[in-house]
Amino acid sequence: MKSEIVIVTPSREIALARNYEFGMVFGDLAERDEKRIVFVASADQAHAHKKDGPYGFSPRASVYDRLVVEAVRRNQMKSILDLSPSLGREAKPDSLWQMAMLAGVLDRVEMKPRFHSYQVPTYYGMLCAGFERPPES
Question: Domain 16-132 class?
Fold first, then answer.
């Protein structure tokens, strides 16, 4: 079986809503196509957890990461679209734009979250989770 890989890099210059809309288009495609489609959103969370890190410290980093972890656990990824722009600027995440795309996919494809872990190994937060379709009845 031949696999195809498409790499999409979201941009901070594109509004979260547009990244979300892209995710919805991707989700619609996944629902229509008979091929198995995997969407991977990979990025670190807030980068401002340590004063001696390259981005310095912001107390907003832990706020951002907590809200994202809650969104994953509750399967309410669309809630990240409501995060204040200042929170994103101060927490310095890489993940927000990829997760906006993921939220769009989840708006179109029913999936359940599987939270694996959250850690702050150095100056940035790391969240590991997966989303799977529920078993067919």
Answer: alpha beta
Question: Any idea which residue has 């850690």 for tokens?
Answer: 119
What's the CA gap between 94 and 43, in Å, rounded?
5
Give the Å distances, CA to CA, from 97 to 34, 53, 94, 104.
Answer: 27, 22, 7, 11
Residue 75: both structure tokens together: 């399967």
Q: What is the pLDDT of residues 61-71, one digit of tens each?
A: 999 999 999 99
Q: What whole-number distance in Å separates Cα of residue 134 and Cα of residue 123?
A: 35
pLDDT digits (tens, 9 = 90+) for 84-129: 999 999 999 999 999 999 999 999 999 999 999 999 999 999 999 9
Please name the residue that has the structure tokens 């939270």: 115
In angstroms, the CA 25 to CA 76 distance is: 19
